[in-house]
Fold each of these.
Amino acid sequence: MAKPIFNYDDESDTLYISFSPGESATGIALSAHILLRLHKQERRVVGLTLLDYSILAQSTEAGPRSFPLTGLSQLSTDRRTMILDLLRQPPLSDLLFLSAYTPAQGDAIPIAALYREP
């Protein structure tokens, strides 16, 4: 895979990361601020869009800002498993740190934080 291309738009505070420029893809909203673009048949990431990027990249007193991947709950079990697998491996694992928040015993809500700023 080629080196990712980063495009940041100041006006909208949006960072688009392309792993396969110009390729058609299906968009999946992982949250209100994260759109994953992928080639479904090949189970391959094509791009990642981060809306309100400066907020997502901002650290807090406690450390990196994490955000819930609420869009995963809208997906079928197979699609959710595929997305979680993609999040655990490069190129996404180079950008996002995946973990889980457990508000109650047995519940686990996937969350992510920017691993490092590009």
Amino acid sequence: LRQHFFNENKDRSIFRKNIGRALLNQNNDPFIETWEINLTTRKSKNKYSSFIDFGYQKSIEAQVSRYIQNNFSFSVFEVTEKEERLQIESKMISTVSRCECCKASKEWLGNSSPKHKIVKSGLWLVNELYKTPFDASGIDHLSKVIRG
């Protein structure tokens, strides 16, 4: 959550990067090309830093933070085993992406995403979409995990 909610760095959170893409695309902002550059490596920073308006990038990062803080709430529950966490995450994403009744509103910012999978799914991600959803026993297990 820290990577998404507090740390204003698009290259450390695909969630933040996708929201920034939609904000920039919505405004036909040419900075979207710069936004796509991954600056996590020193080599990349050295190669591209002279071409990037870091002040403007910081203002986009702030817009992303405001969007997240104004439009999201988070629920957290403990899953100690990494394999189980990954399985639950995948099945949650797949369940929602396959849900016929779960559609984004017409006003949803993600509709401005340049990523077709985001627009189509109504979710801020592209991985784990349309895979194996929870079955009844999986939902029962998830309910128990959430309740502790």
Amino acid sequence: MRVSQLWRYPVKSMIGEQLDSIEINSTGVIGDRVWATRDLERGGIRGAKKIPRLMQCASRLLDDGHVEITTPYGAVTTTRASNANELLSNALGHRVQLEALKSEADLEHFRRGAPDHDDPMQELRNLFGRINDEPIPNLGAFPRDLMVTLAEYESPPGTYYDMFPLMAMSEQSITHLKHALPNSSIDVRRFRPSIVIDSPLHRDDDPLPELSWVGRTASVGTAKIEFVIGCPRCVMVTRAVNGSIHDDREVLRYVVRELNQDVGVYANVVQPGVIAAGDEVVIA
């Protein structure tokens, strides 16, 4: 198995950058999710689950730690620009403020904003994009301390990722979805992995070879990662990314109905290091 793609997302929920190599540490890819948007209408750090057009904005990390942002309409700004918040708010149709990542000690920064619904179950169904007869993911399968934290905070304090520092998926999963959904725009940018791995020796009847990696570690480049749990897919995989990757609910319908809700696997960093496209992935 070898690394085929590497991605970094400088701003939470925006289109990321495909890179030739990445450096990872305990919090994930260096330069990943170092900025996010605060919802000035309902409070809290928000992503594309709540503000869909974020998925149509592109972000590129600059040398000074700031980020260049391109809106869906082609306007370009940076996080250092005085009018960046106004420009982005107009593009999103929602008042937001760009905020750099804070220390884990700044708990108020990460505290959840107001929910959209008083019914917690309906709030979950909306976040995961589930229709009435579909199950929501088994959140009890995730570490209890993580779920306690996420009940109060939008992300683990000190980070802007949803649950884990890394998410990996296989080229074979993408190929399977393209074959299963020929009328849909299947693109890796819908699924937002950190690492894409080519697993050519997987069984032909296994559409998601990455799920067999759960509970195992992998040496890749100079780093080592641990695959923890499958990644249950939410409403974000239905969002439009650009004019050719359009809003498409059938992608999520298929994942829930046929793939037991998961595509990709979450991972932790066991040993920091550098990973390059083409590196061999050795699973223990």
